[in-house]
Amino acid sequence: MAKVLVLYYSSYGHIETMANAMAEGARAAGAQVDVKRIPATVPEEIAKGAHFKLGLGAPVATVAELEQYDAIIVGTGTRFGRISSQMAAFLDQAGGLWARGALNGKVGGAFTSSATQHGGQETTLFSIITNLLHFGMTIVGLPYSHQGQMGVSEVVGGAPYGSTTITGGDGSRQPSETELAGARHQGELIAKTATKLFG
Ligand SMILES: Cc1cc2nc3c(=O)[nH]c(=O)nc-3n(C[C@H](O)[C@H](O)[C@H](O)COP(=O)(O)O)c2cc1C
């Protein structure tokens, strides 16, 4: 059974919701799945003042445990069109794993969210994917087998590079059923790919 880690950083909960959908899809494909998070780096009073979602559900990830997984799916909200500093700082600590080639050949994927439709989702996905390629990982995106990314009749996230959601400027929009279906589909494809490679 392939082991899959869904690793996320979320301030307001949108990425956490997408992470759980990603995990659902991977479990449906028969993988053993853990969902873990990167903690906030600001003090609690600032997090409260900025209306962060406190008490996020998943246990906190450690860099050392990345090696245990066959697939690692990384999600974080867009920060000025790129990966969040919290996730980047976590991945930067994987230099030792990189030096040993410990992540070479593992399966990877990316997902993100942004406030606006054109606020940098694709560049953020590539910011994550670039990092995973340096780790030697094989990337699985969100192919057009997720037909939900084809329509224009509603505001919808999702790109061939990875699942996404759009929060709106005030963060009030939650991931739609189409976007969650995209995350489930990508999670399923990543788990199936890892199972083919690692059994
Ligand atoms: C410092 C900062 C920079 C941001 N930069 C962007 C941006 O470039 N484009 C955008 O659309 N949204 C941007 N946002 C909004 C976040 O992407 C949004 O709050 C996040 O995707 C919500 O996910 P979460 O609920 O999981 O935290 C930014 C937010 C912060 C705090």
Characterise the protein shown here.
The protein has a single domain, classed as Flavodoxin domain (Rossmann fold, 3-Layer(aba) Sandwich). 36% of the residues lie in helices and 17% in strands. The model has no long low-confidence stretch (mean pLDDT 97). The protein is built from six helices and six strands, in the order E-H-E-H-E-H-H-E-H-E-E-H. It has helices spanning 14-28, 44-49, 85-92, 95-100, 121-134, 177-198, and strands at residues 3-9, 32-37, 71-77, 107-114, 138-139, 163-166. Helix 1 (14-28) packs across helix 6. The longest helix has 22 residues, at 177-198. Strands 1, 2, 3, 4, 5 and 6 form a six-stranded parallel β-sheet that branches. The chain is an alpha/beta fold. 45% of the residues are buried. Flavin mononucleotide is lined by residues 10-15, 77-81, 113-116, 119-120, 167, 171. Its cofactor is FMN. GO terms for molecular function: flavin adenine dinucleotide binding; FMN binding; NAD binding; NADH dehydrogenase (quinone) (non-electrogenic) activity; NADP binding; NADPH dehydrogenase (quinone) activity.
Topology:
Blueprint: E1 3-9, H1 14-28, E2 32-37, H2 44-49, E3 71-77, H3 85-92, H4 95-100, E4 107-114, H5 121-134, E5 138-139, E6 163-166, H6 177-198
Parallel strand pairs: 1-2, 1-3, 3-4, 4-5, 4-6
Bound molecules: flavin mononucleotide (FMN).
Keywords: Flavoprotein, FMN, NAD, NADP, Nucleotide-binding, Oxidoreductase
Protein name: NAD(P)H dehydrogenase (quinone)
Family: Belongs to the WrbA family.
